[in-house]
Design goal:
With 327 residues, this protein is α/β, with parallel strands linked by helices. It is built from 12 helices and 11 strands. Belongs to the UPF0065 (bug) family.
């Protein structure tokens, strides 16, 4: 059975050497890409990372005239897919949609076995950010956080679903349960595509998960959002309060993702991809498509990705400690 530690150790051991990068430079990286590019999504199809990355991949194909092939490689809280990216040739033909977990959370859980984002891969550009939503199945008789907590305490032991151990979708509900005093058991899945059916069938009672994955079910009335993480209400659901407004402070972190490539990838390739993301994120059609599913399109320089990750790590480190997951 693959463990997070085994996956990351194996991936890092196979990381490509600088010889490949030198070869890419010699062959003229300014022509990148001159063949299909593989885009690893480290979560299952149908989830927020997958959906939003596919929208961007369509635009990258139109811009560069090459196919950007989406490869879903879920498992080990997204670490299987990122390990595959780290182990690939640093030539710009394998990139990954890495999340805040890979940039700012996993090193505190897996210790030395985790990918070091400052050493093992290079950031390219932010892709998006979105809030996590405290969601429940519509059959639960609660319309506010306070009502849900009261119902949960009367009900007794409940289960919540997440996208894997150590993800923000695990840490947030664990912290929520600890602060409210409800008895909640963690049930890890590979992504929201599995969590949602479990919620609708009654196997799990709640989740604090990426909003994008749940929007269609919220709109259909099958799932009810009670509150959102973040510092302000989200345009897609203006009537839903923030966690702070609902009486739960310190739940103001959003989920985000950024493209990453193996360390040693030529900077000219990184810059071409980052430049493309700047134009894609500014496109009104893309922004509207993201907004429909509850996300905000972003772009940045590689340095801005690294800066955001460094700024958020202390907060996530404390959350990992509270959840009892420190490695």
């Amino acid at each position: 059975m693959l463990t997070r530690r085994t996956v990351m150790a194996g991936g890092l051991a196979a990381a490509a050497a600088g010889i490949v990068a030198a070869t890419v430079r010699a062959s003229g990286p300014t022509v990148w890409p001159d063949r299909p590019v593989h885009v690893i999504v480290p979560y299952p199809a149908g989830g927020s990372v997958d959906l939003l990355t596919r929208i961007v991949a369509e635009r990258l194909e139109a811009r560069f005239g090459q196919t950007f092939v989406i490869e879903n490689r879920p498992g080990a809280a997204g670490n299987i897919g990122v390990a595959a990216m780290v182990a690939s040739r640093p030539d710009g033909y394998t990139i990954a949609a890495a999340t805040v977990g890979h940039f700012a959370i996993n090193p505190f859980i897996d210790g030395p076995a985790a990918a070091d984002p400052d050493r093992d891969f290079a950031p390219v550009s932010l892709i998006y950010e979105l809030p996590n939503a405290l969601v429940i199945p519509a059959r639960v008789p609660a319309t506010t956080v306070a009502e849900f907590v009261s119902w949960a305490k009367q009900k007794g032991k409940l289960a919540f679903g997440s996208s894997g151990v150590g993800t923000s979708t695990h840490l947030f509900p664990t912290l929520f349960a600890a602060r409210t005093g409800i008895d909640a058991t963690h049930v890890p899945f590979r992504g929201a595509a599995q969590t949602i059916p479990a919620m609708l069938s009654g196997d799990v009672a709640f989740a604090i998960d990426n909003l994008t994955s749940y929007m269609a079910y919220i709109e259909s009335g099958q799932i009810r959002p009670l509150a959102l993480t973040g510092t302000q209400r989200w345009p897609a659901l203006p009537a839903v309060p923030t966690m702070a407004e609902a009486g739960m402070p310190d739940f103001d972190m959003t989920s985000w993702a950024a493209f990453a490539v193996p360390a040693g990838t030529p900077r000219v390739v990184v810059d071409r991809l980052a430049d493309a993301m700047r134009d894609i994120a500014a496109d009104e059609t893309v922004r509207r498509r993201f907004a429909v599913v509850g996300a905000r399109a972003l772009s940045s320089t590689p340095e801005q990705v690294a800066s955001r990750a460094a700024r958020e790590r202390p907060i996530w480190k404390e959350t990992v400690r509270i959840a009892g997951l420190a490695g």
